[in-house]
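[Meeting: bench + compute handoff]

Bench side (C.D.) handed over the final construct sequence. Compute side (W.E.) agreed to return the predicted structure before the next meeting so the bench team could plan truncations. Sequence as handed over:
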Amino acid sequence: MTDITYPFRDRSDAEKIADRSIFDRLITLYETTKVERRERTKSREIDLRCVSPQGQTSLYPDDLPLVFLTRNDAKLMPGFLAHYRALGVTRFICVDDASTDGTREFLLDQPDVDLWASALRYKEARRGRLWREALFALYGDDRWYVNVDSDEFLIFDDCENRTLWSIIHALEELKITRLPAPMLDMYPVDLAAADINQLKTHAPWEVADHFDSLGYTLATTKRAITVKGGARHREFDSDLELIKYPLIFWDEHCRFGPSIHQPLPYQRNFSSVLGALLHFKFFADYQKVITDAVADGQYFDGSAAYAKMTDALAGTGALQLVSASSVKFEGSGQLLRLGFITPVPKGTPAKAPRG
């Protein structure tokens, strides 16, 4: 394991991710072979049915599809779709995990959303990984996908003025097939005042507008990048993995295997951190969200991270997430200056989305 300063102090820190010895690369290749062999022995049958009125749509070569999972995130749906539409996404492909808050009904009314349902729950589908793999197979290999959850908003260098096509072209020129991005937990200064009704007219980062600027660790392992830290680690001693790969070129060799944080083949996981995922869990309704997550028991380790939040609530009656390391989110330029993301080459003009 190689430890790397994060947020990056300068570009050289970020370059250490890909600067791996021949020995390290061979270990990663061996690990890929070993895990792929094990994964091939597991059943891939999965229950999925498209419930959209138009049924499953076909993707054109110039489509940019986004695959996401959701459960009871109706409050975030308008902002989520608007954010990714602005970034060039042309088709949303969603599995709704038994939502009861109107999420499903809202998505059924969106003409650019293919909505899928399953008799399985999130945990039974290997925390959604089997759903994602099945959808990639249904919609086709050998293309780029955005791959996120409904509470994750991808930010990259100058994303306010550039679409994801500019990122894709830059990655293709560099022969990189995945974009790693850590999740940054977002939270408001005053949780009680962060009314979810504000999300009808404001972007979520205008309501839950702070994040931790310090307190992260980044390292490379034999399988991928690993990032830990943030507000949940600081307040609840959470050891949850923050790294994800929200932009990925999916081909016949890809699968998620044991973890969505370490997609196979592992040798593709070591490139510079060009993006960050703003992660939204904390608004005024946080107590209900935490209670429901614990009762549902679908998340990692039996929703242990949410159980720790419940314990904290029992002791204090309310959560206070702001600390000396908190800063207000000011856009992609700020994340670039602070070292959370690195610049994206601008040599190739952005591709316009299909009209």
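W.E. noted at the follow-up: DSSP finds ten helices and 14 strands in the chain. C.D. will use this when planning the next construct.
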